[in-house]
DNA sequence: CCGTATCCGCTCGGATACTG
DNA sequence: CAGTATCCGAGCGGATACGG
């Protein structure tokens, strides 16, 4: 945000493409699901819509466009009737894939532990009258 | 994957803790920065604030609380004056660490390519009058 | 089948001010 | 030092309707 003034001549990419933003796009809530789903091979719009639980059509479209714009997905339109559109990973995205699945597998392994940690945290926060008591 | 029949015991954590939500917390915009920064060893609040470019105090606090609640960070208060609070990764989070750095390194490697892909996409979208023309 | 467009509630998140 | 509290604008995201 408050970037000290860089030379505008060469490194536009540094300004235009902060790491945090790239990661945010790539590791976004739906992006991971989409990329993992598309990793098996070309996949159609409605297949994505059905395979990703809870995503709305709007959010699917928005994420697909953003991933395409970032060069992670290619969109291929087959001029048939009815229309058929397929999305595939680019080389860049295939390289990303293993990190994503690693993340997902980690989340699966620790999902239970996380749920327990939340319960513990919440019950602890609820029962601390001797410290959190604002006297009336 | 989406609709295999779950046992009741798993169903509880499944409801309380959807995979997508876990990933969203863990791979969130600021979460990654925080976890990576805390991986080197116990780190203080202001150290985090200074080392993470662009984060506000509010967002830092919110993310720290959420990570603590999810069992990824431990918060240790040293009863000194002035007060000293340190955050450390839990075992669960240290296991996550390598996937996160993998992601970050990927983002660094391809930051330039992504910036170029965006430029290409935008210029293509701007100059396609023969296909995108909405006839009046 | 594969989207786009519009409305709108709701949350995110920065700015600011105040405590132990 | 390490937060909490409150305000408030921006934009995310669901619902709905429509088009090629």
Automatic annotation (TrEMBL), chains A, B:
<dbReference type="InterPro" id="IPR036390">
    <property type="entry name" value="WH_DNA-bd_sf"/>
</dbReference>
<dbReference type="InterPro" id="IPR036388">
    <property type="entry name" value="WH-like_DNA-bd_sf"/>
</dbReference>
<dbReference type="Pfam" id="PF01638">
    <property type="entry name" value="HxlR"/>
</dbReference>
<keyword id="KW-0238">DNA-binding</keyword>
<dbReference type="InterPro" id="IPR002577">
    <property type="entry name" value="HTH_HxlR"/>
</dbReference>
<protein>
    <submittedName>
        <fullName>Winged helix-turn-helix transcriptional regulator</fullName>
    </submittedName>
</protein>
<feature type="domain" description="HTH hxlR-type">
    <location>
        <begin position="17"/>
        <end position="115"/>
    </location>
</feature>
<keyword id="KW-0804">Transcription</keyword>
<keyword id="KW-0805">Transcription regulation</keyword>
